[in-house]
Amino acid sequence: xxxxxxxxxxxxxxxxxxxxxxxxxxxxxxxxxxxxxxxxxxxxxxxxxxxxxxxxxxxxxxxxxxxxxxxxxxxxxxxxxxxxxxxxxxxxxxxxxxxxxxxxxxxxxxxxxxxxxxxxxxxxxxxxxxxxxxxxxxxxxxxxxxxxxxxxxxxxxxxxxxxxxxxxxxxxxxxxxxxxxxxxxxxxxxxxxxxxxxxxxxxxxxxxxxxxxxxxxxxxxxxxxxxxxxxxxxxxxxxxxxxxxxxxxxxxxxxxxxxxxxxxxxxxxxxxxxxxxxxxxxxxxxxxxxxxxxxxxxxxxxxxxxxxxxxxxxxxxxxxxxxxxxxxxxxxxxxxxxxxxxxxxxxxxxxxxxxxxxxxxxxxxxxxxxxxxxxxxxxxxxxxxxxxxxxxxxxxxxxxxxxxxxxxxxxxxxxxxxxxxxxxxxxxxxxxxxxxxxxxxxxxxxxxxxx
Length: 451
Description:
This protein folds into 2 domains: about 5-185, Chloramphenicol acetyltransferase-like domain (Chloramphenicol Acetyltransferase); about 215-450, Chloramphenicol Acetyltransferase, CATH 3.30.559. The chain has helices at about 5-10, 30-35, 55-70, 135-150, 185, 225-235, 240-260, 310-320, 325-335, 340-345, 350-365, 425-435; strands at about 15, 20-25, 40-50, 75-80, 85, 95, 115-120, 125-130, 215-225, 270-280, 290-300, 370-380, 390-395, 405-410, 415-420, 445. A hairpin with a 4-residue loop joins β4 and β5 (about 85). The chain is of the alpha+beta class. The strands form 3 sheets. It has a 7-stranded mixed β-sheet with strand order 11-10-12-14-15-9-16. A 5-stranded mixed β-sheet has the order 6-7-8-3-13, with helices on one face. Strands 1-2-5-4 form a 4-stranded antiparallel β-sheet, with no helix packed on it.
């Protein structure tokens, strides 16, 4: 793949008389003006260990890991033209966990970090702003943190770190490379490549909101082999099967809503489900910053009700059409190209914020009915595997789509987690009920049950 990379835009780390600072990557720049203490931009990854966590040891592991990931140990600052990340001198704090994750954390508040590390009993979690990184980058941090924690307890990993198959678990005694904090979008930008067109507005779940500061998390766990078999029997991938079930649930909700509002025109007939794509699979880079884009799966409710098998087939076909490097390159061209435009670069930040909110309204979550992010299988070094009982992945809260889902697998288990700001649990109920109708044994857990 030819690339029109420019070092001025690719490498985000700079050093001046005040110390190190980092430019935001092309996915991160939209997040500060659209984030607040509710729509925090914080997604979450957590590991459940086999014993209660020793706080002092975990604090030491966190300090070592943050030193190895200096581009994560930052705070957001405003310049005249751009936001930037200023490297922090102190290590991140280790916070007590809450049953309401990813809330009460505003990255725009002075001295607030872009990550929050939390613990409760045997659970360790990282909540990471999408302004800083994506799921793959945050997972690298969490895997390194947990591996370092066990090393401090005398449990060595049993495999070389920083190299395949554990290249994303970074040795804490080595300095970071410039590639780890590079802007992958800028590296693989092709000048003159056509941009995708504007997407129409999608239908959104209609529900009262939960009280301020509440973010409901419902986790469904099922055997990974059963889920893979169900997908294989239908000739689709696991992500495609889960996406079709998600659309099936949204379809039922749309038609139920129209029945309630008989005679009134719907706000939108379009269901649109976002499926994030890890671009590292297409374009080689070791960046731990954002490097993902998305595919939109769309269904027009004006065409009538589709059964699940039909939605599975259509989801498979849409994914095949859009999940390739040339289609993805169109999004890179649109998103990354503007950062090199001198006219855009010279606009003051307060005006950029205004236009960013307008663009987000046109190209962002208003074009989505929801999203489903599958991080895939997680691997850990041989000596660490027996000490990790489970892994969960939670989406960032959204005041627009209200309810979204994230998926991750560990050993023999598949974890599907819904995060919601809505009082209604209908989407989650329909989704997991459909999985059970497919013969998949799902165990449901709500974090609201915690004391």
